[in-house]
Every structure is written in C-alpha cells, then in structure tokens.
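Late entry, evening session. Most of the bench is empty. Finally got around to the prediction I had been postponing all week. Sequence below, unchanged from the version circulated by S.P.
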Amino acid sequence: QSVVVCNLDGRILLYNNRARLQFQAPGGGIQSSSGMALIGLGRSIFAILDRNLITHALDNIQHRLRRGSAQPVANFVTTSQTDQLIRVQMAPVLGRLRTEVGEQGSERLLDGYVLILDNITRSFEVESQRDQMLQSLTEGSRASLANVRAAVENLLDYPDMETEQRDRFVGIIRDEVGVMGQRLDRTVTEFADALKARWPLEDMLGVDLVQAARRRIEQKLGIPTKTEEVAEGLWVRVDSFSLLQALTYLVFRLRDEYEIREVCFRL
C-alpha cells in the first residue's frame, strides 16, 4: 500500500516508495504540469488529492475525536491526475494533550494525518463489467423465458394435442433451457472477478451524517436547518462526501426554484 504522512497544512512529511511510484506520470516521471514533482518532502498533498476531500475527512475525524472515538478514521474515493481511481483511508496523528482552564478532562490535539492509498481502478472496471454482465444476462434470458413460457402454456392448455406437436413444444423447452444454462456458465466464467467487487463505503453514525449535512448547508447556503427525529445508534454505510455534495446541491436548487427557507432532517 502507498503511505503518505502530512501535517495539517497538507505538506508531505514522509512517504514510501510505493506512493512515489503510484503517482508517476505516464512515461515514468513524477512531475506536475508545472514541472514540479508531485510526491516529495515538503510538497503539497493537494497537488494529488482534492483539498475539499481532505478537509471533509479531517472534519469527520475531529468530530469523532470530540465524541471520544478510540480509532477515528475516514475513507473516501477520488481520482488522481492520471485518471486513476484511488481509495484513501485517513488516520489522525495525535499530538499533545490540551486542557482548558477550569474544565474537567483533556483533549488530544490533531498534529497531522496518515493517508493509506489503494489504486482501485481495476476493481472499478471490474464493477462496470459486472453491470454489463447483469444487463447481458437479463436481456439474453428474457427471450428464452418467453419461449419457455409459451411452450408450457400450450402444453397445459391443450393436453390432448398430437404427439408430434407435443414433442415439438418439449423440444423448445429443452433447447431454450440449454441455451440459458450455457449463457449462465459463460457469464460466471468471464465475470468471476467482477462478482467479488464492491464499491468502498464508510461506516458512519446516522446522527453524525445528519449533523455534517446541517453544518454544510448552513455554512454554504445560509439556510437554517433543524432535526425532527434521528434514530439513536443507527449506523449507515455511505460515501459521505459525495452524499453531502448531492444534498447541498439539492437544497441549493430547492432554494432557487421554490424559495424554501428551512430544511428539516429525519432519519
């Protein structure tokens, strides 16, 4: 796996050789369009990863730290400058303890973060192949099923039909079932890897997701929000960054099209 360690400003403090190789430009270089190396000590991680994604992941981690999470991590998926699909796991680098005067307890400060990066381009391609497989299997089987259904209905509706005609309908059923079996076997063989692929999602408390959505909408759009009902202890598996982007855009359109003045969340 590729590993990169950064401070809170996004400056790279440490990286392994796998990370350097992963972000090589076509032709073997590791240069950006401006001629600077993408991976290097003191370089900015934002030359490789979207700043908004990093900020969102840091906000999630800090929120979990405040809630007392023992192992706060964040996950997201993005694309590199070379159009590779990258799955990123962020873990915090915790520094000194901070204790406010007159308050009980202390809080460990966030000094930076570790990024573990996996190139899942191939996995995503396999996922696309799985979609094609399902479509092909569905479309290809529809005609065969229709022929089988018609043959069975004729056999049931006309039990006294001639032997020759009965054998013809039985032959149709046999042939179509054989074609479906061959199609299924071929699909399983060609797409065996695709059947194992899954889009990576992040485990998140439902209440945290709602609070993140409320903060983003209020900060970005200035629209008041409130919570009507959120089930306690409800966990969701979600790409939180993409979902919050979508929710924010939806509220933006609702405000412009219908002049809504408040958003209420229920989960």
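Two things to note before I forget:
DSSP finds six helices and nine strands in the chain.
The longest strand covers residues 85-98.
Will write this up properly tomorrow.
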